[in-house]
Amino acid sequence: PxxxxxxxxxxxxxTDYQKLVSYREYIKGEVSYNTGAAGDGYPYGDPxxxxxxxxxxxxxxxxxxxxxxxxxxxxxxxWTGSDPxxxxxxxxxxxxxxxxxxxxxxNYLTDITNCDSGTIGAPDQLxxxxxxxxxxxxxxxxxxxxxxxxxxxDNETLALYDKELALSATKYSPLTFDLNQLIALARYAAxxxxxxxxxxxxxxxxxxxxxxxxxxxxxxxx
Length: 222
Known about the structure:
With 222 residues, the protein is of the alpha+beta class. The protein has eight helices and eight strands; from the N terminus they run H-H-H-H-H-E-E-E-E-E-E-E-E-H-H-H.
């Protein structure tokens, strides 16, 4: 929809992280959760779920499909090409649809539906969050009040994606580095130097690799 492109254009001057936050807040401001439809076991595949987010009508609300597809649509309009700086995916499971966001060399669980007002993750606990568990056992997100929510991938998602399904254990944090730190990390990762002061695990995956260079470079250009 033209409205979606207008949203992207309105935030074109923001950093990558700020754009993601703006898209989350736009969607939350445009729709509410359609509890009636969800109670009837609303099936996936309704193209209007995406359109409702951008139609400007407060009476057209959505279920998880609308939230997650609208977020992916805005991301896809923003970051294009075969190797985008930010990528957004649509996993499903347990009668729920959410997003995986790849940024800075790691993948993060993002559930816009459950960041909306009145939900378990409001206002942003399930946005680029850290989780524990794994692909086979399910991912657990810890929330305030000693509560948790669990995400299990269904067979369709397991068949569709590969490396995107492994999620970060820590919440995404937009970091700031200078060029000298990037050069030092590049030299360390390449084995040119053994100076451990340059061994910065930027994406918190437990290893120093090219993914850390990607994450640091992403922070610099943001």
